[in-house]
Predict the 3D structure of the following.
Amino acid sequence: MEERNYWSRALEGGVSRRTVLRGVGIASAGLAGAALIGCGNKEETTPAKATAASAAANAQATASDPFANIKRGGILKGELTADPVTIDPYGNASFTAKTIAAYTYSRLYKVAARGDKNPYAVGTEPDIAQSAESTDGQNWTVKLKKGVKFHNIAPVNGREVTTEDVVASWKRLTDEKGPNKDAAKDIKLEAVDASTLKFTLPKPNATFLHFISDSNLLWIQPKEVGSGFDPKTQMIGSGPWVMNEYKPNVKFAFKRHTEYHDKPKPFADGIELAIIPEYANRLSQFQAGNVHFSGINANDVLQLRKDQPKVQWRGLLPALLNFFYFEKAETAPNAAWRDDRFRKAVSMTQDRDSLTEAGYNVKKLQEAGLDVSILWNNIVPAGFAAWWLDPRGKDMGASAEFFKFNKAEAKKLLDASGYKGEKIPFIYTNKIYTSTFDSLAEATANYLREGGINVDIQTQDYASVYITQTFRSNFKGIAFGLETPFPEVGNYFTRLFGDDPQNHGKIKDAKITELDAKQAVELNAEKRREFIWEIQRINADKMYYVPSQIGAGVGWTAYRPEVRGIIQTRAYGAPTETLPERWLDV
């Protein structure tokens, strides 16, 4: 039993014991008092105090009723920037599929979102699982909660979730055509009985609970999926929200799952998501009060604060990685970027401080009293404070030079690599992420040109080309894009350097493979951190992937004054992890 507890503690809280708070929680009175965004990633920190808004749901609690005086009902109104590529989370690796999945589908575990903690400083907690136990970190027994019910929709009709459903979902995850099948490679799953699952891993893994909580992977669908209903056109799960309506290019509408297992949540009667591609339109809809929460560009924060001082704010440095990646050796064996000097030159053409300033309005926000700063992404993004290696810090070593903006040195490296100025495609997708991404992608291309790299900008449609081809290493030239915000840091290395078909540059490095295997089983946080830091040093020394600055600045979300129960989470689990807590004080 003691050994089981050792593994459970390692999985549940190994990361969160040593993290640096990087979130910014701001009370409704204004933007002053933002939590410090510092460096010091080896020091223990105290979580920020819950703000007035995020603590509102609990402030009125009584001993007999922890949810006393919460106003139930009403429709929460949000937004999407585009239709999802598919509403089936097993149909595509796109973030749009995962984001919408979290409204209706449950997972075994989920991120333990808390109002008074940064979402990157918390562990996991059960969703529809009751418990997960192991004596060796390799063989895991997972028990399901009793009485978890699917939505009351034919052919499932509100029946209880059993291990048959989990096994059926596992088969979809590991299907040969599944976009994330390699994430579950060599893991075996069997149903012991109707409520007990047995996972057998190829080796002990210190992050198993993060694996089964990952909002990219195991969404629990009923066993009738594919035969009783088509998941491409209908969503039936056991999550907090029931899909009521979907009008492409217009909106999604969800109603409250009245038999949701985490009662009395959700507090709202439903959620409506307007599909609004243009940022200017999203901003105007928020200003008019037609949506309750919206992502706001950093350049608009201060003006909106001035115009509508009662608006509530949350700022968060996300663990969001943006990077350059290069056409694979298989199709371009003699390309200039096969030489690491060319890739290092790409990095050194980029003025990271100026890009961050352009995208995240750092100086003006600092002048307004916000404690924001410029951090540089590594191959582990800056928001992953516990595991991120500061490219400008002393621990980075000699490869820190390749992050510095130095056009003269970049030109020398280009010449040494044999590059003669030939035109190279520079590929990214636009009109899908944010206007910040689009503007910084253009600025990035200009820096490449100024640094001596003759790029030909090629923007691709996200759904039909970028996510299905370029993201899966089928492209010519240089690509530029965002990586999935993994909830567990080790997933970056599996994706970028492993056998995953979405290894974007088909990069293999024996030393990184060795270090990745070590970090995956290491229970000591300090030892694990050193393995992860060394992977970042090796990537920087070779610049297999060139980290960029999109996602390395604080992102801002505005909430109407009547919104309560505001908490944040990481990755794609918000509809399960945060929205059931949200309510309207009207």
Q: What stands out?
A: DSSP finds 17 helices and 21 strands in the chain. Residues 89 and 101 are 6 Å apart (CA to CA).
